[in-house]
Amino acid sequence: MNQILKPGQTVQTEAGVPCKVDKFLGGGGQGEVYRAKLGDKDVVALKWYFPAQATPRQRTALETLIKKGAPTTKFLWPLTLTRSPDVPGFGYIMPLREPRFKGIVDLMKRRIEPSFRALTTAGLTLADSYLALHSQGLCYRDISFGNVFFDPDTGEALICDNDNVAVDKEGESGVLGTPRFMAPEIVRGEAKPGTESDLFSLAVLLFYMLMVHHPLEGKRELAIKCLDLPAMNKLYGTEPLFIFDPNDDSNRPVPGVHDNAIAFWPLYPQFLRDLFTEAFTAGLQDPHERIRESEWRGAMVRLRDSIVYCAQCGMENFYDPDALKAGGGQPGPCWSCGAPIQLPPRIRIGDQIIMLNHDTQLFPHHVDDQRMYDFSQPVVEVIRHPKDPSVWGLKNLSNEKWVIIGADGAQKDVEPGRSATLAVGVKINFGRKEGEIRV
User: Fold this and answer.
1) Residue 353 sits in a domain of what CATH number?
2) 133 lies in a domain?
């Protein structure tokens, strides 16, 4: 490939700091990305635009983004412009993505097998990050699995290709989105990309991540002989239909073809399926009815708190109160091995229910309303008694004293670093909120 920049070549930032090209990483429709060394020590990513893309409008847009700064640390945001007297056009520097982060494409092709906990953590991070972006009056315009990466072990997520971010519904741009992710009104040419179309793309992205399938591709897709532009416009723009639409089964997933959707959909709790159904029925037709980032954020936290492990095979399942009621108080069998699921104790804190598995941790989000969606450091962890493996407890990892109230009404302080035994009916005052152990 005839690369724009060569290894060893040096460009400069606007402030005159040298940036030395190390390695070509990849190219796209706008330009090429390289690993580079900024100054004496910082390793960064350097994007350089093709001449046709290095327009004054693109430069002005980048200057605006650089001045604003990243909404959160999860965005690999433009840091500074770069130039060279020997190469036409310009580029910019952004943080370099670590190799541990994988693409959603890797998930779709089953090159990685992340846990449900990692997926829900990634979903939470993405919803929270796009909320931060939109709250600044900006829109992404091209949310898709090509622009998102996550660590399959932890769920930590990053958002790249941020040079197309723009002020919501302002300005002209050739960036309309990625096919299959664009909102129907964008496909039909009736609107410009904005926050509302971002919300649709976010819902598609989350559906892809959790179901490993597209929400609109069912029987109707199979009936198309040639998936050309008119056919795609019909499928995603003029006549879109959710594959699990409760009132129209004409686009259901087909066994043997759409097996991922068929297998994964029933695994999730009813509250999540209801949210996706709303996103791809009412939200499909009316942009104002789309699920907000804050709703997805809350759903991802609730989903992560609902994880339980099968005692037989160790696979993750989900606690679903609706299914429990329908099953006469008994959870369904494990989706993997068919063994009966044995629910662990759980703690109710306000309207939150957290399953207390062997590896459960609680965070400031769970115990302090003033620190909602703060998952920075655990403040509680489930531990096993060092001398009696049959006894489990909650360890105080915070800097504040707890007060526990036993079923008999007796009170006891739990200092930082100490533990409280897990027992049904025990109430724990964490300082700002109180929880109760249940079964």
Assistant:
1) 2.60.200.20
2) yes
